[in-house]
Every structure is written in C-alpha cells, then in structure tokens.
Amino acid sequence: MQINAVRRQVKARTLEAGEARVVAVSQTFDAPIDDVWDACTNAERIPRWFLPVSGELRLGGKYQLEGNAGGTVEQCDPPNAFSATWEFGGEVSWIEVWLAADPEGGTRLNVEHIAHVDQVRWAEFGPGAVGIGWDMILMGLAGYLSTAGLSIDPKEALAWQLSEEGRRFSAESSERWRVASVAAGTDPAEAQGAADRVFAAYTGGAPDPDQQTPAQETPDQAAADQ
User: What family name appears in the similarity comment (predicted)?
Assistant: First the structure.
C-alpha cells in the first residue's frame, strides 16, 4: 500500500533568517538511480507523473510548475542530489532532494521541504499542509515508475483527489502527519485539530468518523517508524 511505503518526519532547522520547519518524506522505488533521477529532473517526464514544467532544469536555472510552485535550482549533483527554491503565493521555501542506492535494492528518494512558518499558521494546519501534497506527489511517481512509464492526466488526478478514494488517501495521509507531528513534540490535541483542518482544506469537508484510518500510534512508535 502506497501510504505505508513513505517514511515521514517533522523536524526543525536553524537558518540565517531564523528557525524553520522541515517536512521530510522518503520512499524506495524499484528502479535504478539514473532512472529515478531522470524521472525527477527531465522536463519531458515530470508531466507524466506530476505537472507540466517550463524553464531550465539546470544549475541556476528557473523553473515553473503549471499552476503550482516555481523557483531557482540552487544546487545540482546528478544523479545524487539537487536543491531549489519553492516559490508560491508570494512566499519562498526550499526543497532538498537526494537519491541513494538502497542496500536492499532499488533507489531511496529523500525530500526535505524547509519553510519559515509562523506559529499561528503551523498550529492551524501543521505539517500536513505540505505533507499531504508530498504524499500525493510520491504516489504519482511510484505509479509512473511501476507501470513502465504510464502517464497520468493532471485533470484526472484532481478529480481523483476529490473522489471517495482520494478522500480516504487524504485522511490516511493527514493521520500519518498527525502522528509525525506528535512524535516531534506537538501536543496531541493540537496535532489532531490541525489534522482535521488540513483534511478539510484538501477535500472540502470534515473526515468521516466511521472511515477506516491507520491505527493510532504513540510518539515512541512513530519515532521508530521514522
């Protein structure tokens, strides 16, 4: 199950401009590192599992994802790592991506999304604000790499997000980010409230109390999962 294939962690980092929040995801794909790198950095392949992208995907180049973030490629070390600004809605955050051959086979992809987020907004939506989005991105990449390059239609992907299956995925993702947030030290009640609000933001409604979601984990169990 895709939702179980992702490792999630909430961290903090000190930047020159002050404290920043870090949402981290990682997943192993059954594909060689060169193929995963190309899928993530080739402008012809990215739209097959995510969104159309324009610009120059090279060191110092600027990119723009259609209807989403844009930015500047700040570091690039093929096929191992790249970093870029992630600019959206007048705000700037950063992504760091690195790949490594997994000892058990395949390629491990790690992503850290770093942002300055004020306490009010963090308390309102928590890590799921970007975490659910990254879960959906990894799901698209996993499906693409496992089906010999089968492309997805962004419009169909949006419709799926609002479908019953998509709502279940968002609920499960939100719950996993709640667990990661508690493991990072967030008060459980605050983490639950943020999880409920971010689910509503993604789906336009409150979670179904009868809907099956992953079992509640203690912070120690969540930390072990990381």
Answer: Belongs to the AHA1 family.
Q: In whole angstroms, what is the distance from residue 140 CA to residue 136 CA?
A: 6
Q: Which two tokens stand for residue 204?
A: 């336009």
- Distance (Å, whole) CA 157 – CA 221: 32
pLDDT in tens, 48-82: 999 999 999 999 999 999 999 999 999 999 999 99
pLDDT the model gives residue 147: 74
Which stretches of the chain are DSSP H helices?
2-5, 33-41, 46-49, 119-125, 128-146, 154-161, 164-183, 188-203, 219-225
Whether a cis peptide bond, with omega within 30° of 0, leads into 47 is: no
Summarised one tens digit per residue, pLDDT across range 73-123 is 999 999 999 999 999 999 999 999 999 998 888 999 999 999 999 899 999
CA atoms within 13 Å, Cβ hemisphere of 29 = 26
Contact 179, 222 (CB under 8 A): yes
Give the Å distances, CA to CA, from 11 to 38, 51, 78: 28, 27, 26
- For the segment 3-27, what is each residue's pLDDT rounded down to a tens digit? 999 999 999 998 877 789 999 999 9
Angle value at C-alpha 122, between 116 and 126, nearest 5 degrees: 115
Phi, psi (degrees; rounded to nearest 5) at 119: -60, -35
Domains of the chain: 2-225 (3.30.530.20)
